[in-house]
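Hi R.,

Quick one: here's the Lipopolysaccharide assembly protein A domain-containing protein sequence you asked about.
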Amino acid sequence: MRYIRYAFLAALGAVLIIIALANRGKVTLTLLPTPLADLLQLNYTVDLPLFVVIFGGIVAGLLIGFVWEWLREHKHRATAARKEREVHDLERKLKREQRKAIASGQQDEVLALLDNKS
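And here's the predicted structure, written out as tokens:
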């Protein structure tokens, strides 16, 4: 399985290198359209190879997707944390009740059943 992963990564790397070599031409990126940039006095341009723009767009899309998904799943993580705290509190209460029952010498039927299971 490890060799299949290495073969896939090598093939992916070869494809990315071929794409980069085929798209070495320079492109000019501007921050704003020319009329708006002139109005705001914010003329920012940069010349980059096309493959940098392509790969940068892919990376930016992945990062935006990861952040979006992380924000979307926040409610599920919060619910899981709340349930985990609830379980911890109930386990602590159960142990306290078991200690009280042992100290008093009498056990509840439910607690006796729980002791028999564990």
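Residues 71 and 79 are 14 Å apart (CA to CA).

Cheers,
M.
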